[in-house]
Write a structure and sequence with these properties.
By secondary structure, the protein is mainly α. It is built from 34 helices and no strands.
């Protein structure tokens, strides 16, 4: 393991980019961290690139934050504050001074989801900058007491943001309702999950407020019945979405003059059979399409939709979880490729239909076959050589694809595909080790991160003592790997490639 770790470190240090070294840094011991740190944190250009890297490890970003605070590097601070992966303790360094952070930096800190509560509390109590307070109200991690503190300032332009925030408590929402006549703010208060109970029993005058009340999960059934008859189609549509709307009101909504209302009714999982019967002959194709995909539609009613003139309706029938086998067989021969692709996506596809669709020439159909868990490995091997990337990606995403099939795809031209192959559970660590020379910098960083977690001295020491010398060869040993793999699988994996570290 130490030999493989040393090789990873040397490869990372010799690379023309810093991302492989950054992937190893969190898992290295003190000596290797010093060597990797000299590669990562000396050049300001590299520090700025790492600070903007969203897949960088928190330990790397924390060290960058220490350097930024020590050197008073405002540009580096801004990049770290903008990076969503920067940990909270690193962000706290930027406010741990006698001077308040610059307005632009303060806005980024106030909006950052990882910002610690103490930092957010300081910004809420001391900042007078409207942009900072707005950023604070947009932060999903702000606790309710800080939102109450902001509301007490009485800033009108922040009221709607406070009413939207899920952490706002009922008392603050009630205070917002009383302190404003703005319809947009009141509508958000009515839609809020913590909306005070006293506000849910009266019909508002504004259509926006009535739409919000119709969407409120705690709205009384009597109010929802009235909203289902509202003159505004948006209000009726919202009432059709509410699971508490009475069944009697749904009957009226399924005959609504507006198609957008009927489409929403067709999505409900609690539709009575009579409503299904009324909707199944609707003149709007999207109503029929939605109903055909809805599990509430009984399988016997799909007979009326399987020959629909709209291909989207027939595809929805093919995707219905309880579609009868006879209808599935009929749709497997549909003239529209998108319909046949819907059949190919079914997990319960019979073997005969699977073989029939495997001979299809449409890319969408073959992509579905490539992802199907019952597709034979010989067929997956043929699809792995398909010229279209979507089909090959279907093979990679197939959890049942064998190791032998996956080995064909290790040299895919798309970095994302190679990363997905690397992460497939049926690939061995020995196979993964041979992908360590990936030419794409982000893909290589992800690969090195995996090996760093598996082989790094910090991880190895925590896992316990190494195995005895008489143990079987390590799964990453090249000698063991050569005995395991046939020669044709090794032809592109020279141990000393000449150009593997060149940027793409």
């Amino acid at each position: 393991m130490r030999r493989h770790w040393r090789e990873l470190v040397e490869l990372a240090l010799a690379a023309d980019d810093i991302y492989a070294a950054a992937a190893l840094y969190p898992h290295a011991d003190d000596a290797d961290r010093e060597r990797l740190g000299a590669r990562l944190f000396v050049a300001r250009r590299d520090c700025l690139a790492l600070a903007a890297c969203t897949f960088a490890h928190g330990a790397v970003l924390a060290e960058l934050a220490r350097l930024a605070a020590a050197n008073r590097d405002e540009t580096l601070k801004l990049r770290l504050a903008r990076n969503p992966a920067t940990p909270g303790d690193a962000l706290a360094r930027f406010a741990d001074t006698h001077d308040a952070p610059a307005p632009r930096l303060a806005c980024l800190l106030a909006r950052h989801a990882q910002a610690p509560r103490a930092l957010l509390a300081t910004l809420a109590a001391q900042s007078e900058d409207l942009d900072v307070l707005r950023a604070l109200c947009e932060n999903v991690g702000v606790p309710s007491e800080l939102l109450t503190l902001v509301e007490q300032r009485g800033i009108a332009v922040l009221q709607r943001l406070l009413a939207i925030h899920l952490a706002t408590d009922p008392q603050t929402l009630l205070q917002l309702w009383k302190s404003t006549r703005t319809s947009a703010v009141r509508a958000q208060v009515l839609r809020h999950p913590c909306c005070p109970e006293t506000l849910l029993h009266t019909l508002p005058s504004s259509p926006a407020e009535r739409r919000s009340l119709a969407l409120q999960a705690r709205a009384p059934a009597t109010i929802l019945a009235q909203l289902a008859r509202d003159e505004d189609p948006g209000v009726r549509r919202a009432a059709a979405l509410n699971a508490n709307t009475p069944a009697g009101a749904l009957i009226g909504l399924c005959f609504d003059a507006q198609a957008i209302v009927r489409r929403v009714v067709a999505t409900r999982r609690d539709l009575p059979l009579k409503v299904v019967e009324w909707l199944i002959g609707n003149d709007d194709p999207w109503v029929r399409r939605t109903l055909a995909r809805n599990p509430a539609c009984p399988a016997e009613w799909l007979e009326r939709l399987v020959n629909d003139a709209e291909s989207e309706v027939r595809r929805a029938v093919a995707r219905h979880p309880d579609c009868p086998a006879r209808l599935v067989a009929q749709l497997a021969g549909d003239p529209a490729p998108w319909v046949r692709a819907g059949v190919a996506m079914r997990a319960d596809l019979p073997g005969a239909l699977l073989r029939r669709l495997a001979a299809d020439e449409d890319v969408d159909v073959l992509s579905g076959i490539a992802r199907h868990p019952a597709t034979p490995q010989a067929q997956l091997a043929r699809l792995a050589a398909h010229p279209v990337a979507d089909v090959r990606r279907g093979v990679i995403l197939n959890r049942e694809a064998s190791r032998r099939v996956l080995l064909q795809l290790r040299h895919e031209p798309y970095p994302l595909h190679r990363v997905l192959v690397f992460e497939h559970p049926n690939l061995t660590d020995a196979d993964r080790w041979r992908m360590r020379f990936d030419p794409d910098r982000e893909a290589r960083a992800r690969l090195f991160g995996y090996f760093g977690r598996a082989l790094g001295p910090v991880v190895s020491a925590a896992a316990g003592a190494p195995p005895p010398a008489a143990a079987s060869p390590h799964p990453l040993d090249d000698d063991a790997l050569q005995d395991e793999l046939p020669e044709q699988d090794m032809q592109h994996d020279s141990p000393c490639p000449t150009n593997t570290m060149e940027s793409r």
